[in-house]
Specification:
The chain has 100 residues and is mostly beta strands. The protein has no helices and seven strands. It has a single domain, classed as SH3 type barrels. The strands form two sheets. Strands 6-5-4-1-7 form a five-stranded antiparallel β-sheet, with no helix packed on it. The termini are far apart.
Length: 100
C-alpha cells in the first residue's frame, strides 16, 4: 500500500477534542461549504483553530471538524492538513551562547 492507500483508522486520531491546531495549507471550498463559491479560500495557511469533532471519511481517514474562531467557520480537515499549535504561555528557552 502506498501513502495514498493508507488507512488512518487503523490507529488512534492524531488530534483530540479541544486541541488547538494550525492549518498547514490554504483550504479552498470543494463545493461542500455552503454559502461560498467553489475554489474560494476558506482558511489560510497558519490560521489557528480548535478541534470540535472527529469523524471518518471513506472508512479510511479521520476528518477533524475545526472551529477557526477568528473566521467564524467550522471546516472539516484531514490530519495531514493540520499541525498542533504551540502551547501558549510556555516560555521557550533562549539559545545558549558560549563566549569562552
Amino acid at each position: 500500500m502506498g501513502m495514498d492507500d493508507e488507512v488512518e483508522l487503523e490507529g488512534p486520531p492524531a488530534f483530540t477534542y479541544g486541541q488547538k491546531v494550525i492549518s498547514r495549507k490554504h483550504i479552498r471550498n470543494d463545493g461542500t461549504f455552503p454559502g461560498k463559491e467553489i475554489g474560494e479560500v476558506l482558511i489560510k495557511k497558519g490560521e489557528k483553530g480548535v478541534v470540535t469533532s472527529i469523524g471518518t471519511f471513506l472508512q479510511r481517514f479521520y476528518i477533524y471538524g475545526v472551529d477557526f474562531y477568528e473566521r467564524g467557520f467550522v471546516v472539516g480537515m484531514k490530519g495531514k492538513e493540520l499541525e498542533p499549535a504551540p502551547e501558549e504561555g510556555v516560555a521557550v528557552p533562549e539559545p545558549q551562547v558560549n563566549h569562552g
